[in-house]
Amino acid sequence: DALYDCLTDLSWLPAKGYVLILTNAAPDTCAAPILTDLLTDCCEHWQDRGVPFHVFAQTARSADAA
């Protein structure tokens, strides 16, 4: 998967840890479980290497919640 490859090969951006922030995420789409699995795999990849990798997702506000 290209996204997995991009998030697990950050040799061009050396750091002690990484933070990925997603804004306006849509958790109710059919792709959400796939993205969650992919991000979990990325976190495990970095954990195995002793490098912190954190993901924060801000969901989009629905019209009903306004």
Provide structural commentary.
- The structure is a single chain.
- This protein has one domain (2-61).
- The radius of gyration is 14 Å and the shape is globular.
- It has two helices and two strands.
- The protein has 66 residues and is of the alpha+beta class.
- The protein has helices at residues 2-8, 32-48; strands at residues 18-25, 53-59.
- 36% of the residues lie in helices and 23% in strands.
Summary tags:
66 residues; 2 helices; 2 strands
Short description:
With 66 residues, the protein is of the alpha+beta class. The protein has one domain (2-61).
Strand order of the largest sheet: 1-2
Number of strands: 2
Radius of gyration: 14 Å
Biggest sheet layout: 2 strands, parallel
How much of the sequence is in beta strands? 15-25%
How many separate domains make up the residues?
Answer: 1
What is the topological layout?
Elements: H1 2-8, E1 18-25, H2 32-48, E2 53-59
Helix pairs in contact: 1-2
